[in-house]
């Protein structure tokens, strides 16, 4: 069992930055692919970006690599999502997930409770 707790969401103006955190407990993060998904109003949950078991591997879904950066702190069992130059279309509930692979929401074995990001223009 892996428990994931997100934090760091909020309401910001377009162009601002936010850093989401996901703290894991139960098992070491290094055993899993960790990722961030988002669910925009009326849309399905979609992969934003995932970090492989090796911190050098990153898998981008809908994220703009120039604005979204995922990182892992193995010692703290935490994964982060740095979001820069936020746009109104980034408004969504962001979910942390863990799994053996993460190419889609169906792959996730464990989910966090979600943290809401609201970007106003």
3D architecture notes:
By secondary structure, this protein is mainly beta. The protein contains no helices and 11 strands. It has strands spanning 3-7, 10-13, 18-25, 33-39, 46-51, 58-60, 68-73, 78-83, 92-99, 110-111, 115-120. The strands form 2 sheets. Strands 2, 4, 5, 6, 9, 10 and 11 form a 7-stranded mixed β-sheet that branches. A 4-stranded antiparallel β-sheet has the order 1-3-8-7, with no helix packed on it. β7 and β8 (78-83) form a beta hairpin. The termini are far apart.
Give the tags.
121 residues, 0% helix, 11 strands, globular, seven-stranded mixed sheet, single chain, mainly beta, four-stranded antiparallel sheet
Strand percentage, roughly?
A: over 45%
Instruction: State the helical fraction.
Output: under 10%
Please state the overall shape, judged from the principal axes of the Cα atoms: globular
Mean pLDDT level: 92
The largest sheet is: 7 strands, mixed
- Low-pLDDT segments, ≥5 res: none
Radius of gyration computed on alpha carbons: 13 Å
Structural class: mainly beta
Total E-strand runs: 11
Total helices: the number is 0
H and E string: EEEEEEEEEEE
Between the first and last Cα atoms, what is the distance in angstroms?
A: 40 Å
